[in-house]
Specification:
Blueprint (H helix, E strand, L loop, with lengths): L1 E8 L5 E8 L7 E6 L9 H11 L3 E6 L16 H18 L5 E5 L1 H12 L5 E5 L16 H7 L1 E6 L2 E6 H5 L6 H6 L5 E5 L8 H10 L4 E5 L10 H14 L16
Parallel strand pairs: 3-4, 3-5, 5-6, 6-9, 9-10
Antiparallel strand pairs: 1-2, 2-4, 7-8
Helix pairs in contact: 1-8, 2-3
Length: about 260
């Protein structure tokens, strides 16, 4: 497997930190784009494991940091949900111009919600896979709901998410109210795989139920048994990558390109 660092300029002029993972023979059959979870980065172990697992199924996988997160330029306040979608569209366009348009979108947690919206706008995308995704973008506001009155007065505040401080403003919060994820998924008309752990205590399993019920066939659901939300166990993230890599083959044109065993 080959891993290539990239810097991708988005429509706001920020350079996004990215990494392209290629199969052992460096000749991918298709490309995939990975969207990480809220306040995470593309360097999360689960993201790396899933990406590298997908390369064994013939994918070139582009994982990147959203604006203001990881090693990407910009501030966290600029990394609201709408900005995440725009970053996905910009990175997809970069891949289309420099490599090949990604045909698979994979998203973890809020990144899963973002790829549903982005995938609805991209004709080249043939399949979408979400991992622990919420059924409403408003779900994220619960992380700092106790400070909503404060932001109305001050305009911006510092919040603590997962033990780390982040500055957010009024626009950041309001952006989570501007998207109807269920309406989008009702009109998606693309193969959808929903992976979710039944005991996820960050994004409850009822979110997966709502997404699945409102989606059109072909749709699939895979229970992640006792995995946690961040897939901290390596076996869980590798399993997710293998399941997605096998599932999506049905919806992509096969290519005569034999993969090498990375071992």
């Amino acid at each position: 497997m080959k891993s290539t660092p990239l810097k991708i300029k988005n429509s706001k002029g920020h350079f996004l930190n990215a990494r392209l993972e290629l199969p052992a023979n460096q000749k991918p059959n298709h490309y995939a784009l990975f969207a990480h979870c809220f306040t995470c980065s593309s360097n999360l172990n689960a993201v790396r494991n899933i990406s590298r697992s997908l390369t064994n199924h013939g994918f070139g996988v582009l994982r990147f940091d959203f604006t203001g997160l990881g090693s990407s330029e910009g501030t966290f306040a600029e990394s609201h949900f709408g900005a995440n979608i725009n970053d996905l569209l910009d990175v997809h366009q970069y891949m289309k111009q420099n490599y090949e348009a990604p045909s698979l979108l994979v998203g973890h947690s809020l990144g899963g919600a973002a790829i549903i919206i982005a995938g609805s706008k991209l004709g080249e995308v043939k399949a979408i896979a979400t991992i622990g995704a919420p059924s409403s973008t408003k779900h994220t506001k619960k992380l700092f709901s106790h400070q909503l009155d404060e932001i109305a007065v001050k305009g911006e505040i510092e919040v603590n998410i997962g033990g780390r401080p982040f500055v957010i403003d009024r626009e950041f919060l309001e952006n989570f109210d501007n998207t109807d994820l269920i309406d989008t998924i009702k009109n998606l008309r693309k193969p959808l795989l929903i992976l979710h752990a039944p005991f996820d205590n960050i994004v409850g399993i009822e979110n997966a139920t709502e997404l699945f019920i409102n989606a059109h066939h072909p749709k699939s659901f895979v229970s992640l048994d006792n995995a946690d939300h961040l897939l901290t166990q390596q076996k869980d993230s590798l399993y997710v990558g293998d399941v997605i890599g096998s599932w999506v083959q049905r919806y992509l044109k096969p290519k005569e390109n034999k993969m090498l065993d990375p071992e």
